[in-house]
Structure to design on (194 residues):
């Protein structure tokens, strides 16, 4: 798939006008799921502000894909201050790929599409538990900010009054539902974050 990088750059420019980008000066930023939709855009954004504002960000990008199979971010892996490594997030992260201190982690890994998480429910669970725990454990010794991404699927099938779903809503889960591997493991990932 080809991406229109002019459109992406325009969106990055709009977003950078709304964010205090100086907070990222000299930061180490980890983006998991960097080859996906949200992780890919975050990667583009940080490369954009790094170039435009000379922020000296060290960006650590990871996804399940080897470099030669990247579909979303192949244009970024050779950029200055980019460190790309493949990682199966259902296993513990190899911390030798990470800096000793991560200032920001955007955990965008996981299967957001039902067809993907229904295909391998065990791996879906492990990504949201083992992957999250291993990065949090690495970050726990040094501090840093961790953002755990999920979809509204996390809440199960909320009653009408909870749509759109606020963060305060706890969700309704049926572990016999074929989508439970995603819902319940994302909730457990949130518990680990708390």
């Amino acid at each position: 798939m080809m991406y229109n990088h002019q459109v992406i750059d325009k969106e990055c420019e709009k977003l950078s006008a709304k964010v205090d980008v100086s907070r990222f000066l000299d930061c180490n930023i980890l983006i998991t799921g960097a080859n996906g939709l949200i992780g890919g855009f975050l990667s583009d954004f940080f490369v954009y502000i790094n170039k435009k504002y000379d922020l000296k960000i060290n960006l650590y990008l990871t996804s399940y894909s080897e470099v030669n199979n990247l579909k979303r971010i192949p244009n970024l892996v050779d950029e200055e201050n980019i460190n790309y490594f493949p990682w199966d997030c259902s296993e513990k992260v190899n911390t030798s790929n990470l800096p000793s201190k991560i200032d920001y982690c955007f955990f965008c890994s996981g299967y957001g599409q039902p067809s993907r998480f229904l295909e391998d429910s065990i791996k879906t669970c492990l990504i949201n538990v083992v992957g999250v725990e291993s990065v949090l454990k690495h970050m726990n010794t040094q501090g840093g900010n961790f953002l755990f991404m999920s979809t509204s699927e996390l809440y199960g099938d909320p009653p009408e009054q909870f749509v759109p779903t606020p963060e305060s809503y706890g969700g309704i889960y049926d572990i016999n539902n074929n989508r439970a591997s995603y819902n319940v493991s994302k909730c457990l990932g949130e518990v680990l974050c708390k």
Q: What stands out?
A: The chain has a mean pLDDT of 91. Residues 34 and 40 are 5 Å apart (CA to CA). Strands lie at 28-32, 58-63, 82-86, 104-107, 145-148. The two ends are 37 Å apart (CA to CA).
